[in-house]
Write a structure and sequence with these properties.
Elements lengths: L1 H21 L2 H7 L6 H27 L1 H9 L4 H8 L4 H20 L4
Helix pairs in contact: 3-5, 3-6
């Protein structure tokens, strides 16, 4: 009888270990609650995309202005290449450039820049 009890305990331990090691950890992690909900992540991604699109539009609008075109020509730069290169900027670089473009447009409108 003692042999059967030992054999059963070994069998039970082996089954338990096989079960623990065959279940992927990612499946166990899915059971726990998320720190950030998927809908919040989607909203943040959508917001970041919208901000980037607004910044792109702002910079491209500035680069299409007569004064910016003349400035690019005087610097011997192709305006089309510059407009196309804007889309390859990082989000931070694009935000900084959009801010500068808006400031320059405001200065042009106020007559501070020629």
């Amino acid at each position: 009888m003692r042999f059967d009890l030992r054999q059963s305990a070994r069998y039970l331990t082996a089954c338990l270990l096989v079960t623990v090691f065959t279940i992927p950890p990612s499946l166990m992690a899915q059971a726990s609650s998320h720190i950030v909900s998927p809908s919040d992540l989607q909203k943040a991604a959508l917001s970041a995309t919208q901000v980037r699109q607004q910044n792109l539009a702002s910079v491209r609008q500035f680069l299409s202005s007569d004064r910016a075109t003349k400035a690019l020509q005087s610097a011997h730069m192709d305006a089309t290449q510059v407009k196309n290169a804007v889309s390859s900027l990082s989000d931070a670089e694009l935000a900084q450039l959009a801010s500068r473009a808006q400031k320059a447009q405001a200065d042009f409108a106020a007559g501070n820049l020629n």
